[in-house]
Structures are given as structure tokens and as C-alpha cells.
Amino acid sequence: MERLFADFPAAWTAGDAQAFGALFTDDSDYVSYDGTIARGRRTHQHNHDKLFRGVLASADGARRPPPPHPPAQPRQALPRRPGQR
């Protein structure tokens, strides 16, 4: 987890969608600020590539700071709904 907490802001700050995507598993979920759910490493990489090249980029190359901690959590730590596998 310590490495994740270091690698997450580094990938974000560098605008490196490939490194950012590598922090997720193929069966991971990413919930955006607006509640949109993205599933899977490739989707996270693709979505963040668009963000890093778009709304998160600026003329001087700076990026918005990363969230205070990664949204990824071990699957065991997530609450499960009745009937959810």
C-alpha cells in the first residue's frame, strides 16, 4: 500500500496514463467524482489519458494536484451488498 500511495500521485503529476493504469487490476472499479463507474485497467488508462491531455492539462504543463489518496482499495475492504460476489 505504501508504494501505491507513492506511485499514484507520481503518475498523476507526470500525466502518465500508462503508469496510472498500471496501478489498477483488470477487474478494478474506479468511481469518479460524479459517481460514474469505470471498470478495468484499460478503461482507467484510457479515461485518464483523455483527462491528462484535456481538462487536467494546462498551457504551462502543470496539472491539477492529485486527490489526497488513491481511490483504489483492496477488494476485501469494500462493503458488499446482499447477493454480491
In DSSP terms (H or I, runs of 4 or more residues), the helix count works out at 3
**What is the CATH topology of one domain?**
Nuclear Transport Factor 2, Chain: A
What percentage of amino acids are in beta strands? 5-15%
Q: Whole-number radius of gyration?
A: 14 Å
Order of helices and strands: HHEEH
**Structural class, from secondary structure content?**
mainly alpha
Number of strands: 2
Q: Could you characterize what this model shows?
A:
- With 85 residues, this protein is mainly alpha-helical.
- The chain has a domain at 2-58: Nuclear Transport Factor 2, Chain: A (Roll).
- It is 38% helix and 7% strand.
- It has a two-stranded antiparallel ribbon with strand order 1-2.
- A hairpin with a 5-residue loop joins strand 1 (29-31) and strand 2.
Brief description of this entry?
With 85 residues, this protein is mainly alpha-helical. It has a domain at 2-58: Nuclear Transport Factor 2, Chain: A.
What are the defining features of this structure?
single chain, 85 residues, mainly alpha, Nuclear Transport Factor 2, Chain: A, two-stranded antiparallel ribbon, 3 helices, 2 strands
Q: How are the elements arranged and paired?
A:
Layout (H helix, E strand, L loop, with lengths): L1 H13 L2 H6 L6 E3 L5 E3 L1 H13 L32
Antiparallel strand pairs: 1-2
